[in-house]
Structures
1.
Amino acid sequence: MSWDDILGQDRAKRVLQVHLADGRVANGYLLVGPEGVGKRRLAIEMAKALNCTAGGSRPCDDCPTCRQIIRSTHPDVHFLVPGGPADQIRIEQIRQLLSRIMLRPFNATMQVAIIDGAERLTEEAANSLLKALEEPPAHTRFLLTTTQLSRCLPTIVSRCQVVRCQPLRLDLVQRVLLDGRHCEARTAETIVRLSGGSAARAIELAGRWSSYRQVLARLASGTPAAWIEEPSPETREEVTDLLDGMMAWLRDIAVAAVLDDPSRLAHAEHAETLRRQARSVDVDRCVELAFKLVGMRESLEQFVSPRLVASLARESWLSLREVKS
Ligand SMILES: [Zn+2]
């Protein structure tokens, strides 16, 4: 893996490479962008670039240091991810990290701490990190990532150099799906349109494509019977499929209501059904429901019962269909 193997993110790569070349690497970086667009890979590439023993401005990928970092086994490159029941980064994790990075590196030039999910730092954890972020030991650098800049504590953001990562171009997401043989070309076309430019999301969706298609069949069905006869989804994954499917479908209804262009639909193969539904429901209420579903998706992540969320989503969907029919 090298800078060139990271798809897209040309601007972010340029910023980091210029800082490396000029010898003005910031104490801390906050890589901001959607899930699955390469933030962590950029952080790992930085860790290699700061420590590669081959010299030169590009990591060689071949020296023992590069190889250990690629395998996540380098003693001076530390990874922190959220965990525990609330999926947070807790103060004990930060304390443990700080106690290690205050020491000199074992055998690298720089200790590098890669912290994924900066929005999930508890307030206590963030506070204990502040001083180190502001005045780290000379041999330490921090690389934080987040999908939600607005949820990061301002005190953390202000102490980092923010580097923005963009959604990937859809042709790049398609290449990831096809090169990795995650699905067939035809399925890939639909998944790419649903991916929002996230390679990780596309791969994940390809993995559960058969259950997602069942959700689509329900959404496409004009009768409430399709919902009542089918068993209600119960697991978190099933309900996630349902909510994601509904949100994408509602967006398609809104598009179909104003544009007669199937190529603009995520579910282009259902163009006729979508056009019919767009005529029979109130499009403003579709948009309202889409926002409501975003809230439900978040409550699912906050560990509200999946069964309850599924039942609320189903009720909302059926009431949407009652309006004009
Ligand atoms: Zn190297």
Note: Residues 52-54, 59-60, 62-63, 65-66 surround zinc ion (CB under 6 Å).
2.
Amino acid sequence: MTSPGVAWPRRAGVLELRTPTRELLEEVLVWRNRPEVVRWLLRTTVDPETFIRVWLEDVGEPDHHTAVAVLDGTVVGTGSLRVHDGIGQFDGDAWRRSEAELGYLIAPAYAGKGYATAIARTLLELAFDELGLHRVTAGCFADNVASWRVMERLGMRREQHGVRDSWHAELGWVDGVTYAILAEEWATAK
Ligand SMILES: CC(C)(COP(=O)(O)OP(=O)(O)OC[C@H]1O[C@@H](n2cnc3c(N)ncnc32)[C@H](O)[C@@H]1OP(=O)(O)O)[C@@H](O)C(=O)NCCC(=O)NCCS
């Protein structure tokens, strides 16, 4: 089952974003636990069967939009957009399911080719142009420059620089950054 009204596959530049299947996720697992991939992730090394189960469960979640990125038959990345409530007073409900959190991963052999930017752009189009969301956010460790460059390339604003607010297993307490973009900013930026 996929979310009502959200059609897959869809293009992300030269990539095709497809609904996750066990076969595609097994290909993700070929590189998902490599040191250069997990270095800046919060969910570092994953148990393969748990990873597959959680991603397949997400496919049935109406507010979780997840995809595997394929280039000429090869799995090169993943992307996710998880819709959640924003902040708001209980009089009225404009804030309910008004925001989403964006995520992306690229296979090390395919890094630096603009693929994360392409995946994120397609997910922002989905968020604003199709789902009509108000705001999209994403966060990463401050030293994960490649990740926040993706966000800045797409017009996302750095909203928070958290000083030593994030725990890293090797480095201890390090800085984290949070980015956001509003629907009206996306309309100007795209
Ligand atoms: C971070 C990641 C998603 C970037 O994906 P990507 O496809 O390589 O990114 P893009 O090619 O779209 O490039 C985005 C920017 O990062 C820059 N970049 C790429 N690799 C870099 C590196 N090792 N160091 C610094 N900048 C880097 C690019 O030059 C580009 O910046 P620019 O606009 O200044 O030219 C990918 O490397 C990855 O999945 N890493 C491991 C997992 C991870 O950290 N995911 C994000 C968790 S928040």
Note: The domain at 10-189 is CATH 3.40.630.30 (Aminopeptidase).
